[in-house]
Amino acid sequence: MRLSALAATLVLVAASGSAALAGPIEDLAKSRIDAIASGDLAAVTAAYGPAATLHWVGGPLDGTYGQPGKIKEVWSKFFAAQGTQKATVAATAEAANQKGGTVTIDATFAGKNTVKVRYVLLYRDGKLVDEIWQVNPAAAY
């Protein structure tokens, strides 16, 4: 989506006052949650921009990953550890402007383990450039 179209969409969403309408960045994030839940490694890794960084905070995968091969390895390990899983989203919030957008998601991934996360995604030009996967075991959602 071109930036001017993104800006027009954001104005329309803001003017409508409807919580049912999601912005384009939030749509990307929701698709990502679906890809993670289904273990779709190709879709998960294809979302990244060329210099993306993944910050995994907590749990056995804790660390900061900035190389595509390392990011792919982390997700491969997560999918292997989880097996078949289901994602439940408790809350989302989007903030966007013509330069990019950030989505914050509180979600639970239930597979072999139950993993509650605060997930923050930063998109620029439709690509994921910075990502924080904060393991949040004490969350009430």
Commentary on this structure:
A six-stranded mixed β-sheet has the order 2-1-6-5-4-3. The protein contains four helices and six strands. It is α+β, with helices and mostly antiparallel strands and 141 residues long. The N and C termini lie far apart (33 Å). It has helices spanning 3-16, 24-38, 41-46, 68-82, and strands at residues 48-57, 63-65, 86-97, 100-110, 114-124, 127-135.
Short structural summary:
The protein has 141 residues and is of the alpha+beta class. It contains 4 helices and 6 strands; from the N terminus they run αααββαββββ.
Keywords:
141 residues, alpha+beta, 4 helices, 35% helix, globular, disordered N terminus
List the helices and strands and how they pair.
Elements: H1 3-16, H2 24-38, H3 41-46, E1 48-57, E2 63-65, H4 68-82, E3 86-97, E4 100-110, E5 114-124, E6 127-135
Parallel strand pairs: 1-6
Antiparallel strand pairs: 1-2, 3-4, 4-5, 5-6
Order of helices and strands: HHHEEHEEEE
Approximate strand percentage: 35-45%
As laid out across the biggest beta sheet, the strand order is: 2-1-6-5-4-3
Task: Give the overall pLDDT as a whole number.
Answer: 88
Low-confidence stretches: 1-21
- Overall strand count: 6
Radius of gyration (Å): 15 Å
- Fraction in helix: 25-40%
Largest sheet: 6 strands, mixed
**From the helix content, strand content and strand pairing, which structural class follows?**
alpha+beta
